[in-house]
Specification:
By secondary structure, the protein is mainly α. The protein is built from ten helices and six strands, in the order ββββαααββααααααα. It has two domains: 59 residues, no CATH class; 229 residues, Rhomboid-like (Rhomboid-like fold). A hairpin with a 4-residue loop joins strand 3 and strand 4.
């Protein structure tokens, strides 16, 4: 630390007062001192503080000692901006455009029907395609369990799911944080697609974000109960969606229920993990659930190929 304060002796031996200089710039005189460490600081080194000014070192030390803000479940407060929700919606819309572009006649499948892209990425257990080839999850095309949650059969199908994602996603992302919300969405969607693989006909294709959306329905119920908030408005909406699931043709019952159950399970892990080792328990719970889903896929594959 460089500081020329105090007194010096002149030629006659008498005291001569000197002016303090900035501890970082010895050529600059200053009478301002850091309110935290009392070092002299020049205007260039001043940092605004709640009271007075601080030097750069004290400001940096203060930042390191302040813990970043977290949600009630350990997530980052950046989730309040809904960036993950918006990105997922944009990704689904982009895939829809690519799907329409892949169709020879986009107008014919704009509101309903499959495209070459949905044929490639939908959940199919094991089937013979029009060109005579055999494919499906059981044939090693495991990517279908993930890609199917981003594909839709027409614009109406897409809009319904994106509306649900917009309403539920922003609320859950704000309370869970971006990373935990993304894990919830992907694991719930995967769980729904695994249920399709397990319980649907092997040659019956299925696609859509509704597996993940139903997981969000279950998760918001669990989260709100954990926070002690009223869930009376959620139950009727969930019941209505379940009624549609069982009554409207061409809806994957297995996918919706699988996403619902998986979403509830991962939400329980996120909501009730003990505070002291919350990150560890949440990560371990998610990993265990993924391993269980993997085991179910292996069992179903053995049944179809054995």
């Amino acid at each position: 630390m460089t500081e020329r304060s105090g007194q010096a002796n002149d030629a006659t031996g008498g005291p001569v007062p000197t002016t303090p200089v900035c501890y970082r710039h010895p050529d600059r005189e200053t009478y301002i001192r850091c309110t935290r460490c009392d070092r002299p600081i020049c205007p260039q080194c001043m940092r605004e503080a709640s009271v007075g000014h601080q030097c750069p070192e004290c400001v940096n030390e203060g930042r390191r000692s302040v813990r970043p803000a977290r949600t009630a479940f350990g997530g980052g407060v950046a989730g309040r901006e809904g960036y993950v929700t918006k990105t997922l919606i944009a990704l689904n819309v982009l895939v829809m455009l690519l799907s329409l572009a892949s169709a020879p006649n986009a107008g014919a499948v704009l509101f309903k029907g499959s495209t070459p892209l949905t044929d490639w990425g939908s959940v199919i257990g094991l089937a013979r395609f029009a060109d005579g080839t055999i494919g499906g999850v059981a044939d090693g095309q495991w990517y279908r369990l993930v890609t199917a949650m981003f594909l839709h059969y027409g614009v109406v199908h897409l809009l319904l799911n994106m509306w649900g994602l917009w309403v539920l996603g922003r609320a859950l992302e704000a309370v869970l944080g971006p990373l935990r919300f993304l894990a919830l969405y992907l694991i719930a969607g995967l769980g729904g697609n695994v249920a399709v693989y397990l319980f649907s006909a092997p040659n019956q294709p299925s696609a859509g974000a509704s597996t993940a959306i139903f997981g969000l329905f279950a998760a918001i119920f669990v989260i709100m109960r954990r926070l002690g908030r009223d869930t009376s408005a959620i139950v009727p909406i969930l019941v209505i969606n379940l009624i549609f699931t069982f009554t409207v043709p061409n809806i994957s019952v297995a996918g919706h229920l699988g996403g619902l159950v998986t979403g509830a399970l991962i939400a329980l892990v996120l909501a009730y993990a003990p505070r002291l080792r919350r990150n560890l328990f949440q990560a371990a719970g998610g990993a265990i659930l993924l391993v269980a889903l993997l085991g179910l896929v292996l069992v179903r594959t053995a049944m179809l190929t054995g």
